[in-house]
Hints:
The structure holds two protein chains of two kinds. By secondary structure, chain A is mostly helical. Chain A is built from 19 helices and no strands. Chain A has helices spanning 3-22, 25-46, 52-70, 77-97, 115-125, 132-143, 148-154, 159-175, 185-207, 214-234, 239-252, 278-294, 299-312, 321-334, 338-352, 354-364, 375-386, 390-403, 407-423. In chain A, helix 10 packs antiparallel against helix 11 (239-252), helix 13 runs antiparallel to helix 14 (321-334) and helix 15 (338-352) packs antiparallel against helix 16. The longest helix of chain A has 23 residues, at 185-207. Chain A is elongated. Chain B is α+β, with helices and mostly antiparallel strands. Chain B has helices at residues 11-16, 19-38, 89-98, and strands at 55-60, 63-68, 107-109. Chain B has a three-stranded antiparallel β-sheet with strand order 2-1-3, covered by helices on one side. In chain B, strand 1 (55-60) and strand 2 (63-68) form a beta hairpin. The longest helix of chain B is centred in the N-terminal third of the chain and has 20 residues, at 19-38. Chain B is globular and about 50 Å long. The chains are: A mainly alpha, B alpha+beta.
Amino acid sequence: MDIERIFREESGRILATLIRLLGSFDLAEEVLQEAFTAALDQWPREGMPSNPRAWLVSTAQHKGIDLLRRSAHFDSKREELQKIAALKQQLAGASDDMPYSDRTRDDSSDADPFDDDRLRLIFTCCHPALAQDAQVALTLRTLCGLTTDEIARGFLVPLPTMAQRLVRAKQKIRDAGIPYQVPPEQELAGRLEAVLLVIYLVFNEGYSANSGDTAIRHELCAEAIRMGRILCRLLPSQTEARALFALMLLHDSRRNARSGQNGETILLEEQDRNLWNREQIQEGLALVESALRDGPAGPYALQAAIAAVHARAGRAEETDWRQIVALYRLLLQVQPSPVVELNHAAAVAMAEGPAAGLSLLDGLETKIELREYYLLPSARGDLLRRLGRWSDASTSYRRALSLAPNAAARTFLSHRLAEMESKT
Amino acid sequence: MQYLLLIYDKEADWNKLSEADQGAMYKEYGEFTQSIIQSGHHKTGHQLQPISTATTVRVRDKKRVVTDGPFAETKEQLGGFYMIEAKDLDDAIAVAARIPSARYGSIEVRPIVVHNRP
């Protein structure tokens, strides 16, 4: 009887519906909390209900009505009565026809009566009128059910700061009149961009070596992938959503091969590909292909296609670098950025030799955005190393080391530097 | 002639006032508003919600750019205003985006304070 697991799985769904019914994030959270408390009290004594989700929803709705009656949240008595009537109506219809399933964490393909509300919740949390860090925090808190503490630890932000961020976000939703709805058709793709960005930010935060807490980082990646899966199911025609999901699966498939025994970074070309998760790769490859087939090649589709080329190579030497270069060229057209240019240069170096890559890197030295970016001098050091220019490589690696953002990067670059210095 | 009277002050100072002092200020405003209604000066006027409720809208290359926060450019100056009735923020943003100057400048969308009558 894993109550914690049920709460975690159900909280996003139930909260989404409660927010619609109660018209307030805070009220919905308060009521959900009361329902969980009641479950923790009653279920061990009376046994698990046959349909835990329906039990939680109906309990939450009862408590919602109580709360509405007790609080002074409305401009008029009439509004309060209307809300109570709406809740009662929901109550009458809801509990009996709520399907129960013993699904595992990642939702299956069955339609879910909570889908609409969950979609509303995602789009509201990721509304552009909210600051991006607020979008991320609110999504993780309400949709994924992470605690404020977990989110704070995941993003290396003090707990009170994160708590304030959430409070302000909910205040803005309430005071500025951000509606709780899925955007109309003509705006959906544009608004979806913000949602996908939030999901990808969460994934990258978990994937990067910046945060200290390993457990939280795994949790963030898992939540991002889960959100990606749900989004694909809820918006099947949105190929960029599908592509982002594929991209995350393909990155995550390499999770077990990325770190050495001492936590040091293992580069893609040196990873033991037997440790790659073949199931995730299969799923990811199928999704990329279908995304590219069904829609225009957007930035996520192209990034996923690049990840797919790597995933298909049984050994690093078999990587089709020319394909990757071609894909980066396309990516530069839809998402021009100095970082993409850097990755393009690195791919060119692999396809055409280090000298070709170096001349492209020369062109990037003036980009302001890359001035403090350690991967630029690191890439330069790498190409110089491959050309046997040991002391020039040392200079670049030294610069990269001075800009390295975390311990894993520092360890890696120190090794390279030591290698270079042993040769000069 | 018609004029727009724009009220600038420090939100922090207002927030520091006691409820009694804020109440006193509202009373003064109420009296002032009544008096200019009497004298025929008044057209419309509202307290705005704080900048934490503001959203800025721009249209660049036909794409709508919506960001959290008040207008904060040093190179743009206040050039005009509309007061609208809108269903919600999305509705207000949609209207703001259609203002011709949204293509060159910025439109700040800020909700007004609605005072509840007892």
